[in-house]
Amino acid sequence: MQAGKKRFHATGEGKMMKLSDSAVQDVAFKALDAFKIEIPSWGFANTGTRFGKFVQAAAATTIEEKFADAGEVNKLTGVTPTVALHVLWDLPNGVKDVPEVKGLEKRFGVKSGSINPNLFQDQEYKYGSLCNPSADIRAHALEHMLDSIEIGKALGSRDISLWMADGSNYPGTQSMRKRITWLEEALKASHDQMAPGQRLLVEYKPFEPAFYHTDIADWGMSSHLAKFAGPQARVLVDTGHHYSAQNIEQIVAWLLHTNMLGGFHFNDRRYADDDLTLGSIDPYQIFRIFHEIHAATDDGLGSGEIAYMIDQSHNLKGKMEAMVQTVATAQELYLKAALVDRKKLAGLQHSCDLVDAEELYRGAFWTDVRPVVSAWRVARGLPADPLAALKESGYVERAAKERGSRSMAVSSYA
């Protein structure tokens, strides 16, 4: 079959459905219209590893430049209306910085998204923040949480996205049970200060930088803490925060079943928390996750409250190119999962027709959806190929020329 002539959507039992069929295209366009994903401010800045930082001339050095980059990505893709902010990196003066951020929202056409407290950077957090043995340090960390909530209120941001580095490196050096109690108290106090429309998203990570025990190490701990905090708290799943070969889509299915799934930090990994661009290593995994969400929606559980967010550090790839590439990949994988014939799949699952069920499932994954995504973009007044449009625009080159002297000298993380 000649490339580019015909592209199909698998429906199982050897039958194929043309993506060009109007009914299929209607399903595809509806799915693409519904999909929005948040991009992180720190993804545009110079970031590094434990071993060093390789700076880029076009990297953003100010909150204004981060908003400019975020606005450009939204213009190119049409699906990134919000940008996640890190409090100490983006709002170092707390609520006092809100008027400036609101001005940037209007100027660049993107809104503030999730507010991310920073409980891992200050020297006093060497032995923990909300779980620190020092009551004074725990109080200071809680104050930062409450300040972050107030920033969210002032900006109209729904989600407070919490990740902590708290933990220990050696057996016997900390009381794990005491730290559970301190953490429960802090999250409950934080939850009690939230506005009715706000949410507390509790992220987990099995290790790094803590290597013996991490205070929120898995989805069970995160789910318990969210339930303890109150009804406006949910679990946040970072796709890079799992052990190798862990079945993340099963975790997603459990969180959907228990109504505890709040959102995602999307990235890819080869070894640990690599923060690689989405789908660069295992696109099938993201497809499987999206399938569980679509299936839950079909069953009436709904997915409108799930926050799709990107959390990546583009150390080697160009910042803008990597962000656009990830967003486009997310759209494609979300659409692939939307095109699974779940009614037929359910019948095959019930009758234990294993090969037909798997082939139907895999068929959707292997479908080339790029033409229909391009058609959707054109229909919505967007560039058919946002990555090519970025290159043709000269935006990165202009940013490098304007920012070069500053970005090559930046020493802070983001």
Radius of gyration: 22 Å
Distance between the termini: 48 Å
Give the overall shape.
Answer: globular
Q: How many beta strands in the DSSP annotation? A: 14
Average pLDDT value?
Answer: 93
Provide a descriptive summary of the structure in words:
- The protein is an alpha/beta fold.
- Helices cover 46% and strands 13% of the residues.
- The strands form 5 sheets. It has a 5-stranded parallel β-sheet with strand order 8-10-12-13-14.
- The longest helix has 21 residues.
- The termini are far apart.
Properties at a glance:
414 residues; alpha/beta; five-stranded parallel beta sheet; three-stranded parallel beta sheet; 15 helices
Summarize the structure.
This protein is of the alpha/beta class and 414 residues long.
Please describe the topology of this protein:
Blueprint: E1 8-12, E2 15-18, H1 22-34, E3 39-40, E4 48-49, E5 52-53, H2 63-77, E6 82-86, H3 87-90, H4 98-108, E7 111-116, H5 135-155, E8 159-162, E9 167-168, H6 176-192, E10 199-203, E11 213-214, H7 219-229, E12 233-238, H8 248-257, E13 261-266, H9 283-298, E14 307-310, H10 319-338, H11 342-350, H12 354-366, H13 370-379, H14 386-393, H15 395-407
Helix pairs in contact: 1-10, 2-4, 2-10, 5-6, 6-7, 8-9, 9-10, 10-14, 11-12
